[in-house]
Amino acid sequence: MADYSTIKGFEIQSLATDPDVSEVAAGTWASGGNLNTGRHQAAASGTQTATSMFGGANAPGALLTATEKYNGTAWTTSPATLNTGRKDLGGVGTQDAAIAFGGDPAVTATEVFNGTAWTTSPATMNTGRKSMSSFGTSTAAVAAQGNTPPITANVEEWDGTSWSEETNVPESNGQGAGCGILTAGLIFGGYDTAANASSFEYDGTNWAAGGDLNTARWNLAGFGTQTSGMAFGGGDPSPVIGAYTENYNGSAWTEVADGATKRETAAGAGTAPAGIVMGGNPALVATEEFAAPATTSVAQEGQVWYNTTSTVLKGFAQAGTGAWASGGDVNTARTQCGSAGTQTAALLFLGESPYADKNRTEEYDGSTWTETNNANTARQAVAITIGTQTTAIAAGGTPGGALNEQYDGSCWAEGNNLNTPLYSRGAAGSSTAALAWGGTPPAQSINESWNGTSWSEVNNINTARFKCNGAGTQTAAVTAGGQAPAFQAITETWDGTSWTEVGNLNAVATEYSSANAGSSTAWGVFGGARPGVSAACEEWNGTSWSAVASMATARQAVGGGGTTLAGLASCSNAPLTTACEEFTVPNAVKTFTAT
């Protein structure tokens, strides 16, 4: 009889309700103390229990100078007033160490608050503006975008003494919101020609696209940090005003509890677990406070539980809707390069940059690319999907179409050549057990297998093609698309012995990137020529293809990496670029079903 006491495992919890996906997801809004002067288009600084609010308007043409302070219970009008009345201004800092800048009508003046009085700084903004997104502290602040007029992408930084021009946001926008600090800031929402859902992250030097808001809007309030930001209210588009609230986790926005009062042009302050919004159009006196519970059951990645109310088994893992965000730039722009590895441990090698073959190698750690030792022979269009960051193969390519080099995490060494010299092949597997098929033009159907020492010919693919890609293992692989020479949508799977045609791509594709650390039943392809240069992406589930979120930039002849949950697209042929994008699927509660 079996001894069940030796079986290892864990006890599945039985819960009447699902755990919250985050602390903030359990948060709720409650009324705070009323302002003494109702206003809209004001600015605020501080925390939920120590806030300052200043400027704004309460009637057409009535620009306010009044400052009020909040202690978590009641507002007190401060004897300190702004020297310049203004609305739609920027403001950051704490309750007693704040700055006010810009505003309507296109003000350049900066004022500094010490808790007792406002002092006009001799240093003015370089570009007067209103309706900007702002974040930071009283000595390290950022003013981004806004209306000069016209709407601008301009960015300035304040160092406590003066303003300096910095890297512009990738798009012009106004009437958005911001939160965070100078070296980790976030802006979101706003209006250009329509209500905007985009967000951008700032590292003190460069801007990177973040996840889109679920509800596009402008004239919204913001508070929190870059990795736990809050967006409240606004119009979608104005004057359709809402009380909807969203929380940003550093990659994606999630809808959380709505406020009680719909408002636009309100001000916000505090953190995601403890924030406050105040005022708003039309000259509201009401404030609301957002609070996450001190103790809540928060789901952990990989957690499994049985819901006794709905009588189903559930878990928390990557299962939401994926989105693309900017990654670190490679050091050498290139195209038709080799690539391997994951989103946080990737390898990029060889390629063309521009009109000259390269032998350079770079490694990625999830944020930065670092150059390592070069390959022995410069070439392009190698079989691009074999191996990991520390054990990869560069097989075939042009020139020298039979060459085979192996990477050990530090250096490249030549191994036994392919039997047939080809380039632009598809490939899958590891550094010790791999496949390489198709290639050139003219289109070939040749398929070779690698055992870690030598290559041998095995059964061909059914449709001869080149510039295709693949994923999986030596015994379970998938390939799709390519050229023959017409663009293809055909998908084939390999079972270790032969290839079988299965469901086609939704659109023809060639020279695309792929999640090359994926499998024969979970694979993604990114961009390519379809037939024009495309940002479109598709995901394979072992049976069929479905469209997923498109990249921000259309790309062709791209390096790839990762999985369908965490993918990577690097470089491009059209245009030639160093920019990379990362695809990430967020965690979500998932219900398990019997199969």
Task: Describe the 3D structure.
The chain has a four-stranded mixed β-sheet with strand order 1-28-29-53, with no helix packed on it. It is elongated and about 85 Å long. The model has no long low-confidence stretch (mean pLDDT 90). The protein folds into three domains: 10-20 and 293-317, no CATH class; 28-291, Kelch-type beta propeller (Neuraminidase), CATH 2.120.10.80; 323-588, Kelch-type beta propeller (Neuraminidase). The chain has no helices and 53 strands. Helices cover 0% and strands 38% of the residues.
Beta-strand content bin? 35-45%
The CATH superfamily of the largest domain is Kelch-type beta propeller
Instruction: Give the N-terminus to C-terminus distance in angstroms.
Output: 29 Å
- Our count of domains comes out at 3
CATH architecture of the largest domain: 6 Propeller
Give descriptors for this structure:
elongated; 595 residues; Neuraminidase; mainly beta; 3 domains
Q: How is the secondary structure organized here?
A:
Elements: E1 13-15, E2 28-31, E3 43-46, E4 51-54, E5 57-59, E6 62-63, E7 66-70, E8 75-81, E9 90-93, E10 98-101, E11 110-113, E12 118-120, E13 133-136, E14 141-144, E15 155-158, E16 163-166, E17 177-181, E18 184-188, E19 199-202, E20 207-209, E21 221-224, E22 229-232, E23 245-248, E24 253-256, E25 267-270, E26 274-278, E27 287-291, E28 304-307, E29 312-318, E30 323-326, E31 338-341, E32 346-349, E33 361-364, E34 369-372, E35 392-395, E36 404-407, E37 412-414, E38 426-429, E39 434-437, E40 447-450, E41 455-458, E42 469-472, E43 477-480, E44 491-494, E45 499-502, E46 513-514, E47 523-529, E48 533-540, E49 545-548, E50 559-562, E51 566-570, E52 580-584, E53 587-591
Parallel strand pairs: 1-28
Antiparallel strand pairs: 2-27, 3-4, 4-7, 5-6, 7-8, 9-10, 10-11, 11-12, 13-14, 14-15, 15-16, 17-18, 18-19, 19-20, 21-22, 22-23, 23-24, 25-26, 26-27, 28-29, 29-53, 30-52, 31-32, 32-33, 33-34, 35-36, 36-37, 38-39, 39-40, 40-41, 42-43, 43-44, 44-45, 46-47, 47-48, 48-49, 50-51, 51-52
